[in-house]
Design brief:
The complex is a heterodimer of chains A (about 375) and B (about 325).
Chain A: H1 3-32, H2 40-58, H3 61-85, H4 90-113, H5 140-143, H6 148-157, H7 162-180, H8 182-192, H9 194-199, H10 204-230, H11 242-252, H12 257-276, E1 280-283, H13 284-303, H14 307-330, E2 337-340, H15 342-357
Helix pairs in contact in A: 1-6, 1-7, 1-10, 1-11, 1-12, 2-3, 2-4, 2-10, 2-11, 3-4, 3-10, 7-8, 7-12, 8-10, 11-12, 11-15, 12-15, 13-14
Chain B: H1 2-21, E1 26-29, H2 39-54, E2 59-62, H3 68-78, E3 84-87, H4 92-98, E4 107-110, E5 119-124, H5 126-140, E6 145-152, H6 155-171, E7 176-183, H7 192-204, E8 209-213, H8 217-227, E9 231-236, E10 247-253, H9 255-265, E11 272-276, E12 283-285, H10 297-312, H11 320-323
Parallel strand pairs in B: 1-2, 1-3, 3-4, 4-5, 5-11, 6-7, 6-8, 8-9, 9-10
Antiparallel strand pairs in B: 10-12
Helix pairs in contact in B: 2-9, 3-4, 5-6, 5-10, 7-8
Chain lengths: ~375, ~325
């Protein structure tokens, strides 16, 4: 594999990971305060639409970004009203927000621009242009002919929009807010034991509203990134389930900011790999070795655990071994290449999340008071 | 009691006549949405053109999920709409179940084949049109590498890719064709972000002309191609105007003509299978003021010669769907 290919996959990873990362941090704030947020997808979509629409009308991507954040916060407040103030079911409220956003964006876009539920193409300052650092090249075809160091610099470090840097800065900032400030301590406490927070004389409702508002801001940035930085305009359903993948990433990251960054980069990496090598050719021997090694690892791990683990992991191991055996007998020679279907790489994020949820790689424990409305004692 | 019967009978008769009076044609759009700047929009344009020219009106519905197909068909048929035109291969299964229940209603399916006495099936020779734009891509390419971004990985889209690759190879035997599909679910028609990523990855592998046959995803492909300063090729409708001077051409699939034709025929729409190819102007390439500077005279002559040869039957382009294989491209 060429050096440039590796760099390009890294670059693509970053672009694909940023919307996930911002949405994942949004979910993190909300869920750490005890409010499950299925509506990440809807908020991103609404923000993507309004950011593109307002950018087009005003000619400034920054005003668009503000508009995106505003609509996202508004939806967060609706979620908050339903699930905090009126103690409704948080999941249902989140699903409602998704439906609302999916429908409204299309209808409003159509009546506003009459371009088929799409905003006009953005250009110039209505779009977040990539920041080209001094001395860096911007176009792929020029980069391809540059020296390796220039490639690394131009492709991986330079050429990202400001939102990418905001996204990465949001990680240490989130960590600092959650773990080093009084507000963060209270926010985490309200997700674990709201009664204790209430006893200390702090308003549970206000804290939870603050948390969903922060989630709104982050989702707004993520949405604006999709429509005004990565793309030049809004198209129907353009979030393409990224909000749900962010939720999966949140579970995988065990509700921690730095883990969230790692997870989102990992998921972004899978998607980048999938885009670059749609069908991975692999020698059959390698494939068999990987299957057998995975099966052996699972069995070894399960032996020391409970009976349930033994049954589940044993089952997985048997399936893997069966696949390996089928490959051995199915191909003419072990050195012949076999094709790994693109669906396998696409489903890896979900498979990994299920594995983590099932408790095989450490336990993923959600905030204890998550999903429950707080009823003050009377 | 008898009075009740009379009333019921009268209202039933009224309902029936009302149904018969409402013989407006109907069109059902597929999941990509009515304004995908591509396939469905083309169908919509055909219907609008008919409405403007005849002053008639038509019923329409945009599907939101796969489960609604049969429901939409039955609703239009019950309401007395005739003919009912549906755009999309996915209607084949529901239509084959529904068609028999409404023998007096004519159905038109575009891109799919249903064998029933009251169904007109129109399929296009997309491989022929793609062959032509493939030739243009190969002539416009400086690197000798061209790209293809498909939407959902289905035989129909592979048919596009295969025709395109054959056209490329016909001009430049050493050319490389990189073909990628966006996904395997209907979401692949609406993911411009992934379209952009695929395009970037193809550019970095040397592609300097990219053909998008991916519905709404194609918007991202064309955008990235324009941002990166390479050429792109649009699909289904004429997409040259999206990025003037940066879209080499568009593979036109005259879905609009198919809808227009069916609407004009009204209730006496001919039934049976029809193949619309280069010979009867069902497919072709787009040339207008937006790409006039990109298409050289030499390019145009070569492509027009090939088009004439295909129309005359002297040149045959392999159809992927005929045997699920492609001589010029492996998937």
């Amino acid at each position: 594999m060429e050096f440039l290919t590796i760099i390009q996959i890294g670059d693509s990873t970053i672009r694909l990971a940023i919307p996930l990362l911002l949405a994942c941090l949004a979910g993190l704030f909300s869920e750490r305060a005890g409010i499950f947020d299925i509506g990440l997808e809807g908020k991103m979509l609404a923000a993507a639409f309004l950011a593109a629409a307002i950018s087009f009308v005003s000619g400034s991507a920054w005003i668009g970004l503000l508009a995106g954040i505003t609509i996202s916060i508004l939806l967060s407040i609706i979620h908050g009203l339903a699930s905090i103030t009126f103690r409704g079911n948080q999941l249902i409220s989140g699903v409602a927000i998704n439906f609302l956003a999916a429908g409204l964006t299309v209808v409003v876009a159509q009546s506003w621009f009459s371009q088929g539920s799409r905003t006009p193409q953005l250009s110039g300052s209505a779009r977040f242009e990539p920041i080209v650092l001094p001395g860096a090249l911007s176009r792929m075809r020029e980069i391809m002919e540059a020296s390796p160091m220039a490639q690394l610099y131009s492709e991986l470090i330079s050429g990202h929009t400001i939102i990418v840097y905001i996204g990465f800065l949001a990680v240490p900032l989130s960590w600092w807010i959650l773990y080093r400030t009084r507000f963060g301590l209270r926010l985490r406490a309200v997700g674990e034991n709201p009664a204790a927070v209430d006893t200390a004389g702090i308003s549970v409702v206000r804290l939870r509203f603050a948390a969903v508002a922060i989630a709104g801001i982050l989702c707004g940035i993520a949405g604006a990134y999709l429509s005004t930085a990565l793309q030049a305009g809004f198209t129907k359903d353009m979030t393409a389930n990224r909000g749900f993948i962010a939720l999966a990433a949140l579970i995988f990251a065990k509700w921690r900011p730095w883990y969230a960054m790692g997870t989102c980069l990992l998921f972004g990496f899978f998607f980048a790999i999938d885009n670059r090598f749609q069908n991975i050719q692999m020698p059959a021997l390698w494939f068999v070795i990987i299957c057998v090694a995975l099966a052996a690892g699972m069995l070894f791990y399960a032996i020391r655990r409970t009976r349930l683990d033994m049954v589940v992991l044993g089952g997985f191991a048997v399936v893997l071994l069966a696949v390996a055996v089928a490959v051995v007998f199915g191909t003419e020679s072990l050195s012949a290449g076999i094709k790994l279907p693109t669906q396998l790489t696409q489903s890896l994020p979900y498979i990994l999340t299920v594995v983590v949820l099932a408790g095989f790689v450490g336990k993923a424990i959600p905030p204890r008071a998550g999903g429950e409305a707080y009823v003050k004692e009377r | 009691m008898s009075l009740m019967k009379t009333f019921l009978g009268a209202s039933a008769a009224l309902a029936l006549t009302a149904g018969a009076a409402l013989a407006d044609p109907a069109v059902i759009f597929d999941l990509g949405g009515k304004f995908d700047k591509s396939f469905n929009e083309s169908a919509f344009n055909g219907a609008t053109r008919w409405a403007e020219e005849t002053g008639g009106s038509f019923a329409e519905v945009e599907l939101q999920s796969d489960a609604q197909r049969e429901q939409a068909l039955r609703r239009f048929a019950e309401a007395g709409n005739n003919p009912i035109v549906m755009a999309g291969f996915s209607f084949a299964t529901p239509l084959s179940e529904v068609a028999g229940d409404y023998p007096d209603t004519s159905f038109v399916i575009i891109d799919g084949v249903v064998d029933a006495p009251n169904v007109r099936s129109i399929i296009f020779s997309e491989h022929e049109g793609s062959y032509l734009v493939g030739m243009m891509a190969a002539m416009a390419s400086e690197t000798g590498t061209v790209g293809f971004v498909g939407g959902m990985d289905i035989p129909l889209i592979r048919k596009f890719a295969c025709g395109y690759a054959q056209g490329v190879v016909a001009v430049n035997g050493d050319a490389t064709v990189i073909a990628n599909m966006t996904g395997t679910t209907p979401a692949a028609w609406n993911d411009p972000v992934k379209g952009s990523e695929l395009t970037l990855s193809q550019i970095s592998q040397g592609a300097d002309v990219v053909y998008a046959a991916a519905g709404g995803t194609g918007i991202g492909v064309l955008q990235t191609a324009a941002d990166e300063g390479i050429l792109s090729i649009g699909v289904d409708a004429n997409q040259n105007y999206l990025h003037p001077g940066q879209v080499l051409t568009s593979m036109m699939k005259r879905v609009d003509n198919a809808v227009y034709d069916s609407f004009s025929a009204g209730m006496d729409v001919p039934t049976g299978l029809e193949v619309w190819g280069i010979a009867n102007e069902g497919v072709g390439y787009a040339l207008d003021e937006f790409n006039a500077d990109l298409v050289t005279a030499e390019m145009q002559t070569t492509v027009d010669e090939a088009a004439a040869a295909i129309a005359a039957g002297e040149l045959s382009v392999h159809d992927y769907t005929s045997d699920e294989s492609c001589p010029a491209l492996t998937f």
